[in-house]
Amino acid sequence: MISPLKIGDLVIDPPILQAPMAGFTNAAFRQIVRDFGGAGLLATEMVNARGFVWMDENEAEHPDRLWGVAEEPRPLAVQIWDNDPATMAKVGKRLVEEYQVSIVDINFGCPVRQVTQKAHSGSYLLRDPRRMFDIISQLVEACSPTPVTAKIRLGCTRDNVNCNEVAKVVEEAGAAALTVHGRTAQDMFRGNADWETISEIKSRLKSIPLIGNGDLDSAEKVVAAFEKYNVDGVMIARACLGRPWLFAQAAAALRGEPIPAEPTMSEQREVMLKHYRLVVSRFGEEKGTVLMRKYACCYAQGKPGARHFRSGVARVATTEEFYQIVDEHFPIEAATN
Question: Binding positions for FMN (predicted)?
Answer without folding.
Answer: 20-22, 79, 151, 181, 237-238
